[in-house]
Design goal:
- The protein is of the alpha/beta class.
- The protein has a single domain, classed as Collagenase (Catalytic Domain) (3-Layer(aba) Sandwich), CATH 3.40.390.
- The chain is 52% helix and 20% strand.
- The chain is built from 5 helices and 4 strands, in the order E-H-E-H-E-E-H-H-H.
- The protein has a 4-stranded mixed beta sheet, with helices on both faces.
- Helix 1 links the parallel strand 1 and strand 2.
- Helix 1 packs across helix 5.
Length: 142
C-alpha cells in the first residue's frame, strides 16, 4: 500500500496510480515485498522542524526517511519538502516532475538498503535513481 498525504503544501501529484505502480515495481525489482509506504509532502519549514527534532540537524533537506523495514518487507514514512523540489529543479535545470520523481525513488532506495553517506555510495544511489527514472519514462509514463 502506498499513500500520499499533504501537510502544508498544495500541489497536484500527477498520475498517482502510475506512481504506485512504478514504486511497487522498484521494490519488487530489488527483491523486496511492499507492505506500506506513506509519502508526506510538506514545506521547507515543516521538514526543517522535523530535521531538528528527530535528527538534530539544523538545515533544510529535500527528504527525511523513517525506515520501518523488517527483513525484506518494506515499510516507511517519507517526508518530502516540495519547496526543495522546486528550488532543486531550478538549480539542476530539470522539470519539477523529474526532481519530484527522483526524490520519491531516492527515499524508496534508502528503504531497500541503499545509502549515501560516502561519495561512492552517493554515486551508486544516484545511478539507481537514474535507472528507475529511465524505467518510469519508458514503461510507466502515460
Amino acid at each position: 500500500m502506498i499513500d500520499f498525504n499533504f501537510e502544508d503544501v498544495n500541489f497536484q501529484l500527477p498520475e498517482q496510480q502510475t506512481l504506485v505502480d512504478w514504486i511497487s515495481f522498484a521494490v519488487k525489482n530489488e527483491g523486496y515485498e511492499l507492505k506500506n509506504i506513506t509519502y508526506v509532502f510538506c514545506s521547507d519549514e515543516y521538514l526543517w522542524n522535523m530535521n531538528k527534532q528527530f535528527l538534530q540537524h539544523d538545515y533544510y533537506t529535500d527528504i527525511i526517511t523513517f525506515d520501518y523495514v523488517k527483513g525484506k518487507v518494506v515499510s516507511g514514512d517519507l517526508f518530502i519538502s516540495y519547496d526543495r523540489i522546486v528550488d532543486n529543479a531550478n538549480k539542476f535545470d530539470v522539470s519539477r516532475e523529474t526532481e519530484l520523481l527522483r526524490v520519491m525513488i531516492h527515499g524508496v532506495l534508502h528503504l531497500i538498503g541503499y545509502d549515501d553517506v560516502t561519495d561512492e555510495l552517493e554515486a551508486e544511489i544516484h545511478k539507481m535513481e537514474d535507472y528507475y527514472l529511465d524505467i518510469y519514462n519508458k514503461e510507466f509514463r502515460r
